[in-house]
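Sequence design from tokenized structure. All designs in this work follow the same two-part layout: the structure record, then the generated sequence. An example of the structure record is given first.
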């Protein structure tokens, strides 16, 4: 594996200071498209977690950030948005090299990150409490929202900076201090965020970023008694472990986990639109999306037409060099994920799913022999197939036919997950009936686009709990304090003694 000339050494960001892991350990971070080493990344230990938590704790206890006028906090968060916007091109390219996603995808993400910071800059001044009806005569009652404390933010590798921003921006807006841990495979843009925080004037210790390759690092954050809340995005299996560990110290927890989200295509849909939207719904970011609409449920009387058009167009999607602006499907980010996709395609073949397209590795040519690429793939499946039920997290669509609306809803809801769904129908009554009946956190109607700052995002069932991106997210980074005040003139003397 070649070390490129660009390879450099990264550091941890603790208490507004840059420094290596306390034992000097590093690991190689590679470009999944080429196998080239991008950077030697500081490999933090549990001791470094402890330093980062102490820094965040001290910053919280100092109170400078939490008690700063909300309008001033807002200005710093807004400044971060501006700096991210100014550096959009560089951040996008770094994300492409670290993650393997396409340039177009990464640019779109940076725009969404700017929007997210802008939205929560506004939210900082609107974290309202309530004035409540007095519980007795001569009593006033109110609630105020206060920062929950130190937040441990743990993010996966599929949208590294985007998912970090979904946590960091509302946490800052609420007045929290943060220990951010990016995924070991994609640490670089989180470090850019730390540089931006420093430049924007974030006080010392408010944002700390630690990098490391093992699972132990995340575990050490969740176990640490100095942390008040865990904001976690990742797999359902890890999420369960996080919730169980966090319960030992009664931490607040929000979990954004996995999915097997459906696209429902009814016979009254505009089939061309449904095909175009469903392609995006599953193949965007090479299918490595928590909300990938990987289960296509299609009404039987339009299924042949839909499948023919879907496979024809899917075959035209360009898998290739992520840095080439023409590429639509980039690299698979990790070897573990590549192996998982491969094994699900083998499982599909073994359980009798009909291969419609792809199903194997993609060779994109010279210079990318060490890269991990998978063909755009589609299978016709039965609802009982594992390919219809389990999260693949890759460019693999499963297509299943249904007879009528009731069966479509039953199939869509027959899942341990409940993150997202898309409905394709021109019948407004049917689309709204189905939207109401689906047990998912988000339902999009006649569009694959469903994730926007300001619109709550999160799961039903084993896709997690809590909502990100909404104004209600501010409550997840706050404690509600009730203040009850007696305003009467008669002295208080309950025991009459
Ligand atoms: P993962 O659960 O393996 O890792 C996620 C993060 O948790 C990483 O930073 C990892 O280092 C850390 N981690 C690992 N073990 C830990 C532990 N014991 N305690 C604390 N932290 C630990 O997931 P992944 O493979 O990196 O990401 C893919 C998964 O994330 C998919 O299942 C996908 O559906 C899910 N995801 C969900 C959403 C959402 O919003 N619902 C968004 C993106 C990804």
């Amino acid at each position: 594996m070649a070390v490129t000339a660009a390879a450099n050494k990264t550091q941890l960001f603790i208490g507004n200071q840059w420094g290596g892991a306390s034992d000097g350990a590093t690991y190689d971070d590679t470009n999944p498209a080429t196998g080239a080493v991008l950077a030697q990344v500081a490999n933090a230990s549990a001791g470094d977690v402890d330093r980062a938590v102490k820094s965040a704790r001290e910053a919280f206890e100092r109170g400078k950030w939490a008690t700063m006028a909300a309008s001033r906090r807002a200005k710093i968060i807004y400044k971060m948005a501006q700096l991210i916007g100014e550096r959009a091109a560089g951040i996008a390219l770094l994300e492409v090299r670290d993650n393997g996603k396409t340039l177009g995808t990464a640019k779109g993400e940076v725009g969404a990150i700017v929007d997210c910071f802008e939205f929560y800059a506004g939210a900082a001044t609107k974290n309202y409490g309530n004035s409540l009806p007095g519980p007795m005569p001569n009593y006033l009652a109110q609630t105020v929202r206060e920062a929950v404390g130190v937040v441990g933010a743990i993010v996966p590798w599929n949208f590294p900076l985007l998912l970090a921003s979904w946590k960091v921006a509302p946490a800052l807006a609420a007045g929290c201090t943060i220990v951010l841990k990016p995924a070991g495979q994609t640490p670089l843009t989180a470090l850019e965020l730390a540089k931006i925080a420093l430049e924007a004037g974030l006080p010392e210790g408010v944002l700390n970023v630690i990098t490391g390759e093992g699972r132990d690092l995340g575990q050490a954050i969740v176990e640490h008694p100095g942390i008040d809340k865990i904001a976690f995005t990742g797999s359902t299996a890890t999420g369960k472990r996080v919730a169980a560990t966090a319960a030992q110290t009664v931490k607040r927890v929000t979990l954004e986990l996995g999915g097997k989200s459906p696209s429902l295509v009814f016979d009254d849909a505009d089939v061309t639109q449904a095909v175009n939207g469903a392609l995006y719904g599953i193949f965007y970011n090479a299918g490595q999306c928590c909300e990938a609409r990987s289960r296509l449920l299609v009404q039987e009387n339009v299924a042949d037409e839909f499948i023919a058009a879907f496979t024809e167009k899917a075959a035209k999607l360009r898998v290739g060099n992520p840095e080439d602006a023409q590429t639509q499907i980039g690299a698979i980010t990790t070897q573990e994920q590549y192996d998982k996709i491969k094994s699900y395609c083998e499982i599909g073949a073994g359980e009798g799913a009909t291969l419609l397209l792809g199903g194997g590795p993609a060779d994109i040519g010279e210079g990318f022999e060490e890269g991990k690429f998978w063909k755009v793939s589609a299978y016709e499946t039965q609802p009982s197939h594992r390919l219809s039920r389990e999260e693949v997290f890759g460019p693999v669509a499963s297509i299943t036919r249904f007879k009528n609306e009731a069966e479509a809803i039953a199939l869509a809801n027959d899942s341990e997950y409940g993150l997202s769904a898309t409905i394709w129908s021109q019948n407004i009554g049917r689309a709204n009936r189905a939207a109401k009946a689906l047990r998912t956190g988000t339902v999009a109607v006649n569009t694959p686009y469903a994730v926007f700052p300001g619109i709550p995002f999160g799961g039903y069932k084993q896709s997690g709990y809590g909502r990100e991106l909404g104004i209600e997210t501010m409550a997840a980074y706050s404690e509600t304090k009730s203040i009850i005040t007696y305003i009467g003139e008669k002295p208080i003397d309950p025991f009459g003694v």
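Confidence is low (pLDDT under 50) at residues 1-6. We note this feature because it recurs in several other targets discussed in the main text.
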